[in-house]
Write a structure and sequence with these properties.
Elements lengths: L12 H26 L8 H14 L7 H30 L3 H14 L5 H6 L7 H24 L45 H18 L8 H19 L4 E8 L2 E8 L5
Antiparallel strand pairs: 1-2
Helix pairs in contact: 1-2, 1-3, 3-7
Length: 273
């Protein structure tokens, strides 16, 4: 991790307002496109539009916004973006695994009316998109087969009537056992809270780490992302020096992408653009 460098650019207040307005419109449009894809109205996910929006977010993170209202507006936009991509990624995984709730609800209604496992033709007929029919039908068939095996095993394990009588309870000696949830952990240090970072609030650290993970995901390098504990340990060593060098009381963390790598940058919170 490096100290704040020269990887920034500045634009006028009017330019920032125009850029934020454009980003808000694109985010709204992108959200509608994803909903159309999830409902089966579009065949492909809007990946190119998402990459363009993510590029704009990363660029705006390098701009030092001195106006408090514009800075709050961009922070709100960043939080919405993180929530959107988290929801989109989770839904995409559900679709690939055949567990998307809308598809399952359609299948359950069909099975309640007609019974039996859906075929691919029946799945298409009830509105499940063609590009995810195979994964969905395969998942439904596995679930039905697993349920059938469980029912057969349950019937095979039923004991004889003579075995159903419970043995007489033995008198208990000594105090009753302590419930598992009330037992004290053998290592009390496990429950300690995470250390506080100098000059950086926990909420700002969490937001910076989420943006860090999102940037890695967009680059396709999620496996290379450092854990939260490692990032916290690095900042714990470097922030005191940055606070002393820049003679400030607090810092802000930004995410930058250079040469295909995601980097965290610490800036003085009092820095002027």
């Amino acid at each position: 991790m490096k100290k704040a460098g020269a990887f920034t650019f500045s634009i006028t207040r009017e330019g920032i307002e125009a850029r934020l307005g454009e980003m808000e419109m694109k985010m709204t449009r992108l959200r509608a496109m994803y909903e159309s894809f999830f409902m089966g109205m579009e065949r492909m996910a809007p990946n190119s539009q998402r990459r363009d929006m993510n590029r704009m977010m990363l660029e705006m993170q390098q701009v030092q916004i001195t106006n408090s209202s514009l800075r709050f507006r961009f922070q709100s936009l960043s939080q919405k973006w993180i929530l959107h991509i988290t929801y989109w990624n989770r839904t995409m995984r559900e679709i690939e695994a055949g567990t998307y709730r809308r598809d399952i609800a359609r299948a359950q209604r069909h099975m309640a009316e007609r019974g039996g496992v859906l075929t691919e033709e029946q799945a298409i007929a009830i509105g499940i998109p063609k590009n995810r029919v195979k994964a969905f039908v395969a998942r439904q068939q596995r679930d039905v087969a697993r349920k059938t095996l469980s029912e057969v095993a349950a019937v095979a394990d039923v004991p004889a009537v003579a075995d159903l009588a419970a043995p007489p309870a033995r008198p208990r000696s000594g105090p009753p056992p302590i419930p598992a949830h009330a037992r004290r952990s053998p290592n009390p240090d496990v429950a300690l809270a995470a250390p506080t970072l100098p000059g950086l609030s926990e909420a700002d650290f969490e937001g910076a780490y989420q943006r860090y993970l999102a940037a890695h995901h967009e680059l396709g390098t999620a496996a290379d992302a450092a854990s939260k504990d490692k990032i916290r340990a690095r900042l714990g060593k470097q922030l005191p020096k940055i606070l002393a060098d820049q003679q400030c009381a607090s810092v802000r963390i930004e995410v930058a992408v250079e040469d295909g790598k995601v980097r965290l940058r610490a800036w003085s919170a009092e820095a002027k653009g």
